[in-house]
Amino acid sequence: MLFIPSTASVAAVVRRLREFGAPAEPLTTSVLTDGTTSAHLRILVTTEAAARGLDLPDVSHVFILGVPTSSAAYLHMAGRTARMGRPGVAITLLPDEGNSIARMHTMAQLIPLHWTPFSHVE
Question: What does the DSSP 8-state code read for residue 64?
Fold first, then answer.
């Protein structure tokens, strides 16, 4: 699952991922009810607000683009993985500009979050 900022276009991100050959789809009710098994690999693209209240038990990885708006928003997005005792991974990709890294440090202190920062990657 890929969480993008609410200011970004889900359709544009899906289109761009598909251009690179990634099996991306917007997260919609029809995608969730199409009967596809969890073995079918796909990237579900959504915003934090659009995924609220959904129970997605088979999400193995969550990618969050940018700094979440709050620690509660971060927990909500990261919590879409590792449901019902299953293993899961949440990866947050931050821009290397402004105070985004400092904001993530602060967020990590507010919630029980184990994280490993990596240096700038191009």
Answer: E
For the entire predicted model, the pTM comes to 0.81
Distance CA 91, CA 117 (A): 10
With tokens 């507010």, the residue in question is 110
pLDDT, tens digit, for every residue of 38-70? 446 789 999 988 877 777 777 889 999 988 888
The DSSP line for 15-62 is: HHHHHTT--EEE--HHHHTS---TTS--EEEEETGGGTT---TT--EE
Fold annotation for 2-24+39-110: Rossmann fold (3.40.50)
The full DSSP string for 70-110 is SHHHHHHHHTTSSGGG---EEEEE--SSTTHHHHHHHHHHH
